[in-house]
Design a protein that fits this description.
alpha+beta, Purple Acid Phosphatase, chain A, domain 2, seven-stranded mixed beta sheet, six-stranded mixed beta sheet, globular, binds 2-acetamido-2-deoxy-beta-D-glucopyranose, binds fe (ii) ion, metal ion binding, signal, Calcineurin-like_PHP, Purple acid phosphatase
Length: 472
């Protein structure tokens, strides 16, 4: 009995996967009866873990009994693939039922344009297209990177939709905080948001991590609506694409411990194993880029974790410093750490343990420590998070203009990153990370960091106008 309960409990967290031979409530034997609402909506793609696999996800408000993608190299759609359906019951008053459909498309050919629609005999979506992932002629893949996009005042949305459809991007990395919030109004905010990103995500893979705005009902709107490859509830996972190993994880486990402390340790142990595996494969996949919502370093006004001397994400749990991430990522030579949460854009100098590598003309050429970027300015109704007036030493550039980042990992040595504005077409910032060697920092790197770096002591107050009593 206890086992059964445990099983049910775990299944509900995922959404209950429905059996293929189930009977739907509308099946009465009368052929005139079908589901009340069989129309598929909120179609989106995710990367299946390698370029030959694409995951298609959508939603219906009733049980359609089948889950099918019809696709092909023309709009004849002569191929078809079936998948699974799970029932997601919203935690709100009405316990709204959503049927989440997932199909894995396999043997997708690089560079080939596919047409597809999704559904069942009770309703089909419009026809969308995607192109099998292949490196760009000039090298590597292009990503849109941003966090903190709401459905009210999603200022960057139009531009990202247009550029995605024109295949200016190969993939989106959405670094947490969706819709503000997906659970609101019995989950209708989530539905609206997923409809708003369909013009992006039905065309290119939409890869995600969870933010604090997804916290409701144990992150179940996030867990059910997004489907990341080889993952634990899409909360932590990794994949390789071209020369880059991308690691997504949840910063929120550290803050919503009411859902269980063990998630912090489980994830940390997984991160360690994943980095060990990535290290062995670094000759083939040299870059390691992490993404999670809440940053280690920032210079925003609010008293967020990143402003504390001992940020939990950076240094781990209070007192014990267990499961800190800065040492782990430094040790394995993570190249770039993407964050959001602060509604602004901020590029940091390479930094480790509050030693800022700012004493050279080219801090991003063979940096001896990870580079951090906070890109949380896609746009939402909460407006921008103001910066502290005098930036702390790790802050290299910052902007409060709504916009999003573009990243292209060209090859083993060159990674390009830029920030563009949502209004107009202003290039707000750009930089190259050039690395002639990837891997654990060696003695030379350590000396370089010591020589050209500035160690910022714990009691450092970067301006007397700030309250430096317990935070910077
Ligand atoms: C569907 O469910 C089966 C059995 O649980 C699983 O092996 C398969 O990976 C699932 N497919 C998708 C697309 O989730
Ligand atoms: C929250 O969900 C996770 C899986 O995502 C599960 O491991 C954990 O036990 C859940 N916590 C509670 C309190 O339900
Ligand atoms: C980080 O800096 C602090 C303060 O200078 C020092 O005590 C600590 O040993 C350093 N940690 C590492 C891993 O270098
Ligand atoms: C590096 O940062 C420190 C602390 O803000 C500052 O004193 C120093 O002038 C900076 N170095 C350079 C070369 O800008
Ligand atoms: C890597 O890409 C950069 C930027 O396009 C280019 O300058 C460089 O020559 C490339 N390196 C190799 C080995 O192709
Ligand atoms: Fe946030």
């Amino acid at each position: 009995m206890r086992l059964l309960l445990l099983f049910l409990f775990i299944s509900c967290a995922y959404g209950l996967q429905l059996k293929a031979d189930r009977k739907a409530h509308w099946q009465t034997g009368n052929p005139n009866h079908g589901p009340f609402y069989g129309q598929p909506e909120q179609v989106h793609l995710s990367y299946g873990g390698d370029p030959s696999r694409v995951i298609v996800t959508w939603l219906t408000f009733d049980d359609t009994l089948s889950t099918t993608v019809e696709y092909g190299e023309s709009d004849n759609l002569d191929l078809s693939a079936n998948g699974n359906c799970s029932l997601f019951v919203d935690g709100g008053q009405r316990q709204t039922k959503r049927y989440i459909h997932r199909v894995m498309l396999e043997n997708i050919k690089a560079g080939v344009k596919y047409y597809y629609h999704v559904g069942s005999e009770f309703g089909w979506s419009s026809i969308f297209t995607f192109v099998g992932l292949q490196p760009r002629p000039e090298g590597g893949y292009r990503f849109a990177v941003y966090g903190d996009m709401g459905n009210i005042n999603a200022r960057s949305l139009g531009k990202i939709q247009k550029l995605s459809q024109k295949r200016d991007f190969d993939m989106v990395l959405h670094v947490g905080d969706f819709a503000y919030d997906m659970y609101e109004k019995e989950g209708r905010f989530g539905d609206e948001f997923m409809r708003q990103i369909e013009p992006i995500a039905a065309y290119i893979p939409y890869m995600t991590v969870v933010g604090n705005h997804e916290e409701a009902y144990n992150f179940s709107h996030y867990i059910n609506r997004f489907y990341m490859p080889d993952s634990d509830h899409s909360l932590f996972y990794s994949f390789d694409i071209g020369p880059v190993h991308v690691v997504g994880f949840s910063s929120e486990f550290y803050f919503y411990t009411k859902y269980g402390w063990d998630q912090i340790g489980n994830q940390w142990n997984w991160l360690l194993k994943d980095l060990q595996k990535a290290e062995k494969n670094r000759k083939n996949v040299p870059w390691i880029v992490t993404m999670a919502h809440k940053p280690m370093y920032c210079s925003d006004f609010y008293a967020d974790d990143c402003k504390l001397y001992e940020s939990i994400i950076r240094t781990g749990l209070p007192m014990t410093h267990a499961y800190g991430l800065e040492n782990l990522f430094y040790k394995y030579g993570v190249d770039l750490e993407l964050w959001a949460h602060e509604h602004s854009y901020e590029r940091m100098f390479p930094v480790f343990n509050r030693t800022v590598y700012n004493g050279t003309k080219e801090p991003y050429v063979d940096p001896p420590a990870p580079v951090h970027v906070v890109t949380g300015s896609a746009g939402c109704q909460e407006q921008v998070v103001p910066f502290v007036k005098y930036p702390p030493p790790w802050s290299a550039f910052r902007s409060s203009l709504y916009g999003f980042s573009r990243m292209q990992v060209f090859n083993a040595t060159h990674l390009y990153f830029e920030q563009v504005s949502a209004s107009g077409d202003e290039l707000i910032d750009f930089f190259w990370i050039v690395k002639n060697r990837h891997g654990r920092p060696n003695q030379k790197d350590k000396l370089k960091l010591a020589k050209y770096g500035t160690q910022i002591p714990m009691n450092y107050c970067h301006h007397e106008s700030h309250d430096c009593s317990n935070s910077l």
